[in-house]
Amino acid sequence: MAADGLQVWKPPKTEGFGVDGAGAVDRNKTDMKPTSAFHMAGLVQSSNITKPGVIQGDLLMLELTDVTRRFGTNIAVDSVSLSIPEGQMVGIIGRSGAGKSTLLRMINRLTGVSGGVISHYGRPVSTLTGRELRSWQRDCAMIFQQFNLVPRLDVVSNVLHGTLNMRSTFATMFNLFPREDILRAIAILERLGVAENAPKRAEALSGGQQQRVAIARALMQSPKLILADEPIASLDPLNAQIVMDALKDINEQEGITVVTNLHTLDTARGYCERIIGMAAGKVVFDGKPDELTTEAVRAIYGAGADGEEISESMTSTSLHVRGRPADIKAKVTASGVALESI
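The structure assignment produced for this chain is given below.
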């Protein structure tokens, strides 16, 4: 079924895939070897990539001014003020209940702001409604700890759902997507090392695979900003490393700003150029990884029930070596385990 250049995505019966004129998908018929799969897929244009740390004109990409969120008498986020330039990889750390997730949800506007202002290049987004709010949520992609995929849908359909707020109700109801979007979704999955799973139901994938599909869905939105809420909290160390490598690679190669909540100090130190520490809803640290001293860790995490200092080893995920997704794929394949299975 097709209408206005749209076609129904149907999982292929063959193992390989790409898209031919009849809507069948055959990977061997699709060129998947561009300099960057993102460029081939139309995710970004070379002229639009901004080097990390570059500020557009005199305005910072994202500014929070005295942002507060109250739930009844409880203050989850307390007068937080932050400025984030374009292209940074920012890690937010802190104990459970420190306000990290609420802060990201307010930026994306999944949660309303009780007070203060959130601005994107000087434009307030904390008061947007209707179409303007949907546009902001498209520009500000969210990745969740529990993946938030549709379990019974195939992987490509889940990725294509990243374009739903750009499509008509008719196209959404009948699962109609332009051919170029299907190709683009496959290219992004290829980039993240999970393309072989495109025809499978999302529920059949491992946790690490599902999180990479969630990242692919976010990239389908062509976001200016990616917010990742505890993206590795449910993963084992190897899958956690693969996911963090993917986010770092997206940040460095595509210039997309990434702000991620993390429980682990070693992961924050290894992947983020800037670390923000939160405690009791307030920002108590904001600096470079090498500035995260024992005193700063104490301010963020406090002490244990017996008064002893919190040991960094208690938050370790054993991610000692960071590599690119291609490097990880080579290492895992050499060990006899397929990347697609983890």
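Interim note for the steering committee: The chain has a mean pLDDT of 79. Residues 2-341 form a domain with the Rossmann fold fold (CATH 3.40.50.300).
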